[in-house]
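Thread: Newbie trying to understand structure tokens

Hi all, I'm a second-year student working on a class project, and my supervisor (Dr. K.) asked me to get a predicted structure for one chain before our next meeting. I've only ever worked with sequences, so writing a 3D structure as a token string is new to me. If someone could post the tokens and maybe explain what I'm looking at, I'd be very grateful. Here's the chain:
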Amino acid sequence: MPLVVNALDHLVINVRDVEVSAAWYQRVLGMARKDFDPGAGKARRVSVSFGDQKINLRPLSADKIEWFTAEHDAAGAQDLCFLTTSTPDEVVHHLKSCGVDVELGPVAKQGARGVLASVYCRDPDGSLIEIASYSKQAE
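---
Reply by user tm_fold:
Sure, no problem. This is what the structure looks like when written as tokens:
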């Protein structure tokens, strides 16, 4: 029987400053911060969560032995797409009200389930953040 992957539980992004990144994801994207103890005397970890998913924020300064992680690490190298029920105009207005520059959009892009209406910005490390919604026809 072949392996079938059916969901994403969490992902890890490398950041220069965990506190700055956690605050940005909370303020701009409405995510909830969670601090947790990984045990075995390791440093506390920080994640941000939304829905049933979470993003672990890995400081670039973290030791690769302490964090079992990807072979190559760099802050600002992510390209993430988050879904919203807000309209593209509401997303643009919200980003501007948070002092976040809109890099592109609204534009039509291809998503996993069809056409997305996407607005792009960047997080504090420069990662590309896409905030998108499916039209009623695409759902």
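A couple of things are worth pointing out once you decode it. The domain at 10-134 is CATH 3.10.180.10 (2,3-Dihydroxybiphenyl 1,2-Dioxygenase; domain 1). The mean pLDDT is 92. Feel free to ask follow-ups in this thread.
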